Amino acid sequence: MIPVPEYAKHARKRFAVPLLVASLLVLTPLVPAAAADRADHPRYEPPRPYDIELEVGAGAAMRPAYEGAKDYRFSPTGFFTLHYLWVPGLGEVKSGRPTEGFSFGPSFRYVRERDSSDYAALRGLNDVDAAFELGGRFAYTFGMFRPWVAVRYGFGGHSGIVGEAGLDMILRPTAVTELTFGPRTSFANREYMQTYLGVTPLESVTSGLAAYAPGAGFKGVGAEATGRYQFTPQWAVIGSVAYEKLIGAAADSPIVQAGDDDQFTVKLGLSYRFGLRLFN
User: Fold this and answer.
1) So what's the architecture of 52-276 in CATH?
2) C-alpha distances in Å from residue 148, one per residue of 107, 132, 181
3) Against a cut of 0.70, is the pTM above it?
4) Coil, strand or helix at 251
5) Per-residue pLDDT of the chain (280 residues; tens, 9 = 90+)
6) What residue ranges do the domains of the chain occupy?
């Protein structure tokens, strides 16, 4: 080993501290500059494949011929689910990922026309045109439970307000299978109740049923079970069985008294999931 001269040792000690201080003075201004540079370049986000992702389907249903009927009919039915929605200025309004917390989506229902001449129990009552109900559905998911409420406004055959509330228990036995079941209740305002369950004084004369003017309130309680099997990323089979018992003012209606307050509905169909780009 080559010996270090004594004067070199003293020089190294003399200049070590000044060199360290100088290095800190040079590097310190670079730290905030680097932070500012990172702030000017926000995190990269991958492009969205879609702005909206929907699931629509069609199938068949067996349901009461009219509300409160004891006769049943097969009819077409539809399925609709909003899975994802992105809006400029608002961002991701509805996430396509299953998460806990609040969520919302559209709620709609088509009500077939009621031709009183088709049913002996309704002879003499006014006909009711087909109606389309449009509104929203709000839910809160925690764990395997999901309480929800749906409220809709009617167009066409009625212009009342109607809705349902329920509590779902969600089971996913496999990655492509989902089962839900739980209690249900339904409610409606006076206009809806009068349209489908009321009897005016004139209708009482022509039909022989007692005049009846139901008020707003809860009209049914029951339960529903649904099943879903996703056999491809886009296609799924959906089925449901629902039971509702009309209660209160609905059950007291002469229309229901002549029919049945136990109402069953069975649905089965196919659905297709797809996405669209709405915004650039």
Assistant:
1) Beta Barrel (2.40)
2) 12, 21, 13
3) yes
4) helix
5) 455 455 444 444 454 444 444 444 444 444 444 444 444 444 444 566 788 889 999 999 999 999 999 999 999 999 888 888 888 877 777 766 666 788 888 899 999 999 999 999 999 999 999 999 999 999 999 999 999 999 999 999 999 999 999 999 999 999 999 999 999 999 999 999 999 999 999 999 999 999 999 999 999 999 999 999 999 999 999 999 999 999 999 999 999 999 999 999 999 999 999 998 888 7
6) 52-276
